[in-house]
Design a protein that fits this description.
It is a single chain. The protein is mainly alpha-helical. The protein has one domain. It is built from 15 helices and five strands. Strands 1-5-4 form a three-stranded antiparallel sheet. The radius of gyration is 29 Å and the shape is elongated. 29% of the residues are buried. The model has no long low-confidence stretch (mean pLDDT 84).
Length: 358
């Protein structure tokens, strides 16, 4: 299994410079890693066996498996709550045509053909905001930090680079709003994406994902014999498949097969986790957007900058933030996360002095 994760473990590495925040990383690091890991694991037969095994007497095993994989299996929703072992052999299976009753509706299950691809595509969507921000950011923080993230710097080099940084801010003061708004738009895109992924997953699973987690929780609190397991309804472990075969006389023969879907044991766990995880990510991202709206208040920005530069005096921070627009503050806040605290304090002091002179 180590080989499976070897190709994607680099997603979780800690970056030397921080150009975003923890909420942003929940999207392109944690969520993307989980989706790609599950996508890869679903393809590993050595862990889960064949994705489908069908039983029918008159049709070759491999032919039946391939046919049912391509054309999908089905269950009978009306048989989901029937007593297993008495009324039906497995949840969702039974006789479709019962004398004296209308023909029972069947539900086809085609999603298992596409789980791997859909998970991989969803992972890419969670990376899109990160890709856009990296492209728009263009290494600006790296160029401005200029190795000032280390406390061990030659005094002459440190003074030269601090002077360059102070000079940059004096010249470009109040010109960083567009830079900040591009980052803010990526935060909004993160929220839009996670909400969209909830609806996309719901449509992919036949509109059963939206209530999937609630039903699983409700089922776990009941007697196991009280009702059908919602995980079996969405991800049946045993389903039916009908094979149509033309005879030598051009007559049609219909053969019902019983198909075992061992991969659904893993699929049901993936999607129950995703149900909870998507909700958590959406809520945390929404809170992050409220925090971002609060940063438009000058007083709140001053408090945040003080928490990131504890070594600097309140007067220095106030003198700097008083002259800053939100873009300038955002860039200073990003530098505070990446520069050595003592060097950052000296930089802020010099910047405040130069701004008062101008």
């Amino acid at each position: 299994m180590h080989d499976v994760f070897d190709s994607i473990r680099g997603l979780l590495k800690v970056d030397s410079l921080s150009v975003d925040n923890r909420i942003f990383q929940m999207h392109y690091k944690v969520t993307m890693f989980f989706l790609l890991a599950c996508s890869l694991l679903v393809t590993q037969r050595q862990y889960f066996g064949d994705p489908i095994d069908c039983i029918v007497d008159v049709v070759d095993q491999e032919v039946m498996d391939t046919y049912c994989w391509i054309h999908a299996t089905f269950t009978i929703p009306q048989s989901n709550d029937a007593v297993v072992g008495h009324e039906v052999p497995h949840p969702g299976l039974g006789n479709q045509n019962i004398p004296g009753e209308e023909k029972r509706e069947i539900k086809h299950h085609k999603y298992y053909q596409w789980v791997t691809l859909v998970l991989a595509i969803q992972a890419l969507f969670f990376y899109v905001p990160r890709y856009l921000w990296k492209m728009w950011e263009g290494g600006k923080i790296k160029m401005l930090v200029m190795q000032l993230d280390s406390p061990i710097v030659d005094d002459d080099v440190k003074k030269e680079r601090k002077d360059m940084l102070v000079s940059y801010f004096r010249i470009n003061m109040n010109n960083h709003n567009f830079y900040a708004f591009k980052y803010f738009s990526c935060e909004v895109l993160n929220f839009i994406n996670v909400i969209a992924q909830i609806y996309i997953t719901d449509a992919f699973l036949g509109h059963s994902f939206s209530t999937y987690g609630r039903e699983v929780i409700a089922f776990s609190q009941q007697d196991i014999t009280a009702r059908g397991d919602p995980m079996d309804l969405v991800f049946p472990k045993v389903a039916k498949c009908t094979f149509h075969m033309g005879g030598a006389s051009a007559s049609w023969e219909k053969h019902d097969g019983l198909c075992v879907l061992p991969l659904n044991i893993f699929n049901e766990k993936i999607y129950i986790f995703l149900w909870f995880w998507f909700i958590i990510v959406a809520v945390v991202t929404a809170i992050g957007l409220l925090y971002r709206i609060a940063t438009f208040l000058p007083g709140f920005r001053q408090i945040l900058l003080r928490t990131k530069s504890r070594l600097a005096s309140s007067g220095t921070i106030e003198a700097v933030t008083r002259r800053c627009k939100i873009g300038d503050w955002f860039l200073l806040y990003q530098l505070a996360k990446n520069m050595d605290p003592l060097i950052y304090k000296e930089f802020l002091s010099e910047l405040a002095y130069k701004l008062d002179e101008s």
